[in-house]
């Protein structure tokens, strides 16, 4: 049998997610002693609250929760102590009541005596309070005197300490000697000390003191003298750097190296603390220094950049200066009249003077590689030297704060006085644009030279610029808003424009290409040109980051090629037009299958469709020649049936009688048919180009079509000339043997 504890846990508390801690059996007094169980339980989750639970036991030993009390609400009742006794028992005793009343009277008398004593004490303390108030007033006056003396001494010490500039600092500022690093450091320390003295907030009344006014006048004089000396010194350095001679081009004849201004930057970087001091002390004078720097250094960069790109063009084309200028003066193709660069119908074997195509990518990458550290170093320097990268107040606010003579003062709370980050970047860009004023025109000219190296070099320029910009964005050494990125972005737009012009001119030339009437067949020149462009462009764009422009160009060129091929149908050619179109569409389809270019999948399917269509037209046209009269006769029979003539009545028409049918059939005996097929095969073999190897395909199609026509002729004879006994002069077996014998013998 299971125990009571186990039963309670299993049947009562575990289903309620509670835990049994203790239990005891209890009974009520009386005759019927029904047993119940008092249990102490807690919740299984936290916080665990204990409860006292009464569980009844039925006759069938079924347990049921009767009552439930939190243990915190239970109180301890002690029925044995005489003090937890009833108040009525006390009141019932008269003696005790009498004693209680006497005690209350005694307490009231004692309270009266205490009040009398307190009143006496209060009268005594009243006179003491008056005396203490008098003493407090005298002490407060003494404290005020001491406090005033202390404050006066503090102010005197403040003025004496903060408005005092050491003799060494005064001498350094008066001399303004910046000829050596040690003297520059001394001037920096003196300037910072002077700023500390001049930036102290002095109450307006203090300025009326003669000693304070004289000291402030001395500070202002030192400040102005040193400002003039420093500006003169730094301006002379700018001018000397701007007049630096550029090394001759022959020094790096075989290697392209961009100029370096590291030494110039090192010479100026020592003065950065003084630039910060001047920016705070006199913003108006400070604002002129970046302009002076840009004007002087811009001249040096102009000479260096021109020499750099002149060398780059020389290395690009591998020519002397005279022939170099001739190449650069050649115009790019802009229309159908300028076909010297992209002649679609002539041989390209004479282009021996074109430099190596890979040289364009190599030289352009080298140019961009050399330009990036040059521009980045200069941008980092001017941002540090001229404090352009600091998120400080606008220079205009500083100028306004230094304005004198009754001019309106700008409020620092005005939102227009705060310079956003974008404006700081614009200021840097404007300064760099002035310093590198010749960079964009020279780079544009170099890209023009690259575009003229060979007809498709604009593709190489576009890809190289694209990849360089992506690489620059992902480089950790690149600045977030690099000036060079902006320039290259403009060059990328120019490269895209040149690429689109090249594609437009090529499309126009393809569409306007004329095929000579003497052309016998083969692959059209502009189809080969399209294939050459695709091969070259896919090689160039193989590792490119983006190829959206190329996909558009492929689709556009393919459409022009298809349009130009379609225009052959109206051309006056000696060769069969369907044959030429069939061969060229087949060539394009095979080429696109080989290249697997996603954007040309639609053109590939179209080329296959057009190839099949013109193959069918070519086969049908040439199959009419071996059995020409027989073919015309049955075409007339089909026309009569189509007009509503009954099949059994066709033979009653004079032109399509049985006698006429026999005459036509007699003209095509087996030997004549075989001879005609041999002539047809030789003719097809003569005109089909061997490069496409379409002869087996075309001849097999001829065979299938010929068999279909033979079966059609036999069927028409059976339906329209039933019972006449007329049959063809050759059988199906004869026809198959003709084709089998012709192919190997003619090959």
Explain briefly what this protein structure is.
By secondary structure, the chain is mainly α. Helices cover 64% and strands 5% of the residues.
Note down, in words, how this protein is organized:
By secondary structure, the chain is mostly helical. It has six domains: 4-76; 110-162; 167-242, no CATH class; 249-346 and 355-402 and 419-497, no CATH class; 513-620; 625-746, no CATH class. Helix content is 64%, strand content 5%. It has 25 helices and four strands. It has helices spanning 4-13, 87-91, 94-162, 167-175, 181-198, 210-242, 262-269, 272-281, 283-317, 321-329, 358-385, 395-401, 421-435, 439-451, 457-474, 483-512, 525-540, 548-566, 577-595, 601-623, 628-642, 658-666, 670-687, 695-720, 732-746; strands at 18-27, 35-43, 50-57, 63-70. The protein has a four-stranded antiparallel sheet, covered by helices on one side. It is flat and about 170 Å long. The two termini are 109 Å apart.
